[in-house]
Amino acid sequence: MGREDVLAWVESPLQLIGAAEWAASHRTTVPVAGRLTPQISATADELLARGARFGELAPYLGIPWSLLPRHRHWLVGDGFSGQFRLAAAVLRPHRITFLDDGAYAIAYADALLGRRPYARPNVAERGLTTAVAPFAAELVHRRAVSRRAGMFTAFDLGEDRLDALADRGFGIRRHDFSWTRAAAPAAPALGRRIVLGSALPVDGRMMLIDYVRWVRDAAAGGAVYLPHRRESPEQLDAVATVPELRIHQTGLPVELVLAGARQPLDVHTLPSSTTTTLPLVLAGTGSTVFTDVIGRSGRARRSARTAAA
């Protein structure tokens, strides 16, 4: 495969990390079309500084129509994207590999299997991108039949999904952030307890007062807070009132910030993709990721996952 045959089309830091992992595992250089969203430019610069095998980096807004036709193989960050559906239906790429788009990886696998609608979960869709969804789905399945569609994922899809996807021709390859760990410099000395910020209040899925109560509980005894890239100034101001909490702004995804940890960490988070990614990124450190689910009573139910040795 020539270096101009593949293009990573991404719009979030995690998708960009997935592209770096794919390039490393395939030992090839990958040009990138990166949508201008929060942290994407800083993440690209940091990954390049760590030796990511990226070629030309092209920032874009909307669909990168001038770039996509020049590449036969698309690494797609967001398979649910209306823009991807439209571009795929029109340009019909030769090969497609889907990267992780956070916790949507499992939902997208179910969409490919016809177990759920080909639409982003919990979003009411309408317009042209909805109309072209069947055409994009048909293209993806045709490519799978000819063994030219698959997923490159850190998520455990489960044996049932893996078997069903394989039966339809999809190639599934797991990764464990091995390049991210190997390329990471020593992580900053943040202390043992880390609290990860969340966009749940911004998205209207959690009251800010309940969120601050959770942060206060998770940070009891002192902690460092790593904000989510989409937190609002109002939310950060509210978090700043929590005693013994130090806000540490990095402008980078937490997977890159913590990848170089040399000592065990206790990481506290609300449900998100980090419950899957961080135990892999922190493998060998003895760290533990605590995930809190907030019930209707406002009380948290906590589970823990220790990073593999």
- Cα(first) to Cα(last) distance is 35 Å
Query: Which strand-content bin applies to the residues?
Result: 15-25%
**Count of alpha and pi helical runs:** 12
Overall morphology: globular
Report the C-alpha radius of gyration, rounded.
20 Å
Helix/strand-derived category reads alpha/beta
Name the helicity range: 25-40%
Total strand segments: 13
Characterize the main sheet.
7 strands, parallel
Taken in chain order, the helices and strands follow as: EHEHEEHEHHHEHEHEHEHEHEHEE
The low-confidence runs, each spanning 5 or more residues with pLDDT under 50, are none
Mean of pLDDT: 92
Describe this structure in words.
The structure is a single chain. The chain is of the alpha/beta class and 309 residues long. The protein has helices at residues 13-26, 40-49, 82-91, 104-112, 128-131, 133-145, 159-167, 178-183, 208-218, 233-239, 254-258, 274-281, and strands at residues 6-10, 30-35, 54-60, 73-76, 95-98, 149-153, 171-174, 193-196, 223-226, 245-247, 266-269, 288-294, 300-306. The strands form two sheets. The chain has a seven-stranded parallel β-sheet with strand order 3-2-1-4-5-6-7, with helices on both faces. Strand 1, helix 1 and strand 2 form a beta-alpha-beta unit. Helix 1 (13-26) packs parallel to helix 2.
